[in-house]
Amino acid sequence: MVARLIIRRLLFLVLVLFGLSIITFSLSHLVPADPARMIAGPRASKTTVEKIREQYGLNDPLPVQYVNYVEGVLHLDFGKSFSSRRPVREDLGRYLPATIELGLYAFLISMIVGIPLGVASAVKRDSWVDHVSRFISISGLALPVFWLALMAQFFFFGKLGWLPDGQRLPNSVDPPRSITRLYTIDSILTGNWHLLRLSAEHLILPVLVLAYGSLAVVTRMVRGGMIEVMNQDYIRTARAKGLANNDVVLKHAMKNALLPTVTSLGLQVGLLFSGAFLVEIVFSWPGVGRYAVDAIQSVDYNATMATTLVIAAIFVVVNMFVDILYLFLDPRIAI
Amino acid sequence: MTDTQKTVFFRRALSGRMDRRQVIENGLRLGIATPLLSALAGMPAVASASPATRPAAARTNGQATDSGTLTILFEDGTNDIDPHSTYTTLGSMICLNAYEMLIQYKGSSTFEYAPMLADSWDVSEDESSYTFHLSPNIKFHDDTICNAQAVKESFTRFVKLELGPYLVITRFVDDPDTQIVAVDDVTVRFDLGQPQPLFLAAMASSFGPYIVSPQAWKDNGTDEDPWAHEWLSFNAVGTGPYRLIENTLNEGVTMSKFDDYHRGWEGNHFTDVFIRNVPESATRRQLMEQGEGDVSTYNLLASDVAELQEDPSLQVLIYDSTRVNWAILNVPKLETVEARQGLCYAFPYQENIDSINKGLMKRSGPIPSTMRGYDPDAFQFPTDLDKAKELLAAGGWEEGSSFEYLVSSNYADDKTTAQLYQANLQSIGYDLNITEVDSATYDDMIYGDMGADERPDIMGGWAWWPDYNDPWNQLAPNFLKSAQNGGGSNGGGYENATVEDLMSQAEHFTDEDQLDELMKQIQQILIKDDPAAIFYGETKYYTILKAGVGGFVPNPLYLGTCLFYDMYREEGA
After folding, report:
1. How confident is the model at residue B488 (pLDDT cuts 50, 70, 90)?
2. Which of B51-55, B183-187, B508-512 has the highest mean pLDDT?
């Protein structure tokens, strides 16, 4: 069953990436701007622009350009970025870990805080916990990430001076020896506690802002699931049998209430990546979100398409794992 | 004497609203310690420093003092720091500090020159030959020697690369093999073949005439790229006071002092420089307020500047620039002179200056007040809606007609200006459809080779400043026929036979008075007689400096940049 699911999902992944490559390729090339001129600089001569167009194969017919691109991607060669002049693969290797570190902690916070808050909110309906939870849910969904990021930075850095404004580390500090390229993990692996403290401090604001929207979704889903489950007959039976409240909530209700939340875990990845695009701008975070925004603004076809494909692949793979996890959590699906 | 009195005193002193004498007299009356008063009296003026004023901070001379790290906040990164190709402000700032030209503009002047690589220079009587005498024993960052031969080879690369600002040199030298002569190790001569009064002006440009180590391109060039343009786009090997350590596109640029710099390191200088890439303007403001940034130039909101002038921990310098702003008119579409004049009369000039630019702009034509050729009596359209209506109708645009107006999404202020313009046109019965596009699309619309029909009627928010103090260089790329359809930024397809003829004379002028007269006539045509654009103002630039950071001298031709070597942090700041 699991093997069949994985094969099906992998085939699906290929289809998604193929479709996406056509869409991003077409959209990028529809923009009425000339990347050759962007590379050459605005005041470059016509001859120079033409030379660059030739050099990057931009004079080839679009289908030829597409086939060349796909051929490269199949060999994990995403071409050269027009902006950084480096292979896009190299750029992704540099910027993706920064976004993964941001997303990973944001994801963990939204789970660690969101699940208990949702459960507590459902169990103690209309109490202050419930009000707090509902406030978080509504505000997290209603407030634009960009605005929240600016406000958080304004208060915690600008006014109170408690936290750094952004970046992964202060200007004067060298990053830890590169192992995973996640600074906090690398600091632990190299035993550099000072760097761990610094990198953690720099993560706090962007992670909390990024986690907020995701936290709102998780809290709301858990609360809704719990309220529904708590009204089920088997919960009433458990109570009638004299089970302690904690046992009823934690052992019987929560397990079932969390199933829909697990489904949403995969979707959170998409939410976190889209949020990262904006959070990284405000917090000068050198991640793939900012790289993608710069690429889009500078008509950098190769970088734009590569970031889209890589993020889509991550999204599909994570959702595949969620589906597999679901099989274990709810054996009825396998039947 | 209360704390409030002291606070008011410090604010006034720091904001430059008291002269040196007033600072000392009032300070003594308030019982403030003499050393502190001396420091305050010597602080750079905060508001409205004219280009001629140099911040007069006391400087430690004699022994070398380390000012630490200078942190500059910049809004983007650059993928091209090749000095013979880059046309970005950041690229120019890196080059100005990692490389050197033969000469530079002196302080805030756009007419005088100071030594850089050359200690002195001679000009032949007819201004057709220029000889530069280099400082001896100058080293490149790669430890090779910078002599006259290296200068010749570097200019040869500049000419033959044909990238970015190559017109700065090719206007004067098209055959470097014969026109540039390495007379001896420290003497290099340029034989221009005809009188060229503006050659020195071009040699001091911050776009192009830098001297690159020939060894750098010999070591890193390839068959396809013999001049090593790709390599030099991310590496720098010059003779400048700071070496490039790292350039990462979306993090920043790190530079460190070059120990063998030929002018030495006596005095107070920064050891390291970090140009931090901060894309969000609100973040840049907060970083300056929190003291995390030392310099931020023309990359905040105009309203921020007014507020930051009240902050005693910052110095705000406002100065004239060479940057002028206009809205390009699509001449083939807006064929009649009357229609274009009508559009000029409808523009909200004063509102744009007061409400949107908060005074950081003043009226001008296409040539700014800081350049030769500027005509202080040039015609300026007032906002006159009745006249606009009358002229638009006479020009064949009936009431109810609509115009398309393009702005770049990178500049929110340009959209607001467009909205004010829209309101003016609406009040006289015309529509203005504003379209916002990303900067790549916007630039392509102006530099690209699409036909007039594919372009909008008006392209707003266009700004330009010259490579050096030469009005021909300012106007040619924007208004000559040769600059249409990908040949330059004449995106409005402007073409006027008289302008072509006058510009041709201006290109080869020999007498400054003659140049002024030619420019007067050209401006009259471009602004009024056959309008090429709606000229709405000359930008007033600003630089925010952290208190205690001195040595910054704004030059209207080195916009957005600074010379790190001249800058320092006062002790204790």
Report:
1. confident
2. B183-187
Please state, in angstroms and rounded to a whole number, the distance separating the CA atoms of residues B385 and B423: 11
Where residue A330 falls among pLDDT bands split at 50, 70, 90?
confident
Nearest to B162 among A34, A48, A298 (CB): A48
The amino acid occupying position A91 is D
Chain B neighbors of A32, CB-CB under 8 A: 441, 444-445
Chain centre to alpha carbon of residue A204: 16
| Residues of chain A with C-beta less than 8 angstroms from the C-beta of B476 | none
Q: Of B271, B173, B154, whose CA–CA distance to B569 is shortest?
A: B271
List pLDDT tens digits, range A179-203: 999 999 999 999 999 999 999 999 9
Averaged pLDDT for residues A50-56: 82
Query: Helix A301-329 vs helix A254-282: angle between axes, to the nearest 10 degrees?
Result: 170
Judged against a pLDDT cut of 60, whether residue A255 lies above it is answered with yes
Which chain B residues are within 8 Å of A38, Cβ to Cβ? 440, 443
Question: CA B561, CA B258: separation in Å to the nearest integer?
Answer: 19
B283: nearest CB among A33, A42, A166? A166
Nearest to B215 by CA among B156, B150, B158: B150
In the DSSP assignment, the letter for residue B253 is E
| A284-288: average pLDDT | 92
Percentages helix, strand, coil for chain A, rounded to the nearest 5? Answer: 75, 0, 20
Residue B56 tokens read as 């007069």
Summarize pLDDT for A131-164 with one digit per residue, the tens: 999 999 899 989 999 999 999 999 999 889 899 9
The C-alpha atoms of residue B538 and residue B281 are separated, in whole angstroms, by: 22
Q: Tell me the whole-structure pTM to 2 decimals.
A: 0.82
Give the per-residue pLDDT at B491. 92
* Residue in B with minimal Cα distance to A282: B280
How far apart (Å, rounded) are the C-alpha atoms in residues B545 and B293? 8
* Residue A171: closest CA among B314, B71, B297: B71
Phi, psi values for residue A315, rounded to 5°: -60, -45
**Furthest CA-CA distance within chain B:** 76
Q: Is the ipTM of this complex over 0.85?
A: no
pLDDT at A147: 92
DSSP H/E element including B361: strand B361-362
Residues of A whose CB is below 8 A from B163: 40-41, 44, 48
Contact criterion met (CB < 8 Å) for B448 and A37: yes
Of the candidates B283, B448, B487, the beta carbon closest to that of A153 is on B283
Nearest CA in chain A to B207: A43
CA distance readout (Å), B214 to B172, B221, B355: 22, 10, 51
**Strands of chain A, DSSP E:** none
Do residues B422 and B432 touch, judged by C-beta distance below 8 A? yes
Inter-chain residue contact A286 with B250, CB threshold 8 Å: yes
For chain B, say whether A44 makes contact (Cβ under 8 Å): yes
Q: How many CB pairs under 8 A join A and B?
A: 117
Give the pLDDT band (50/70/90) at residue B60.
Answer: very low
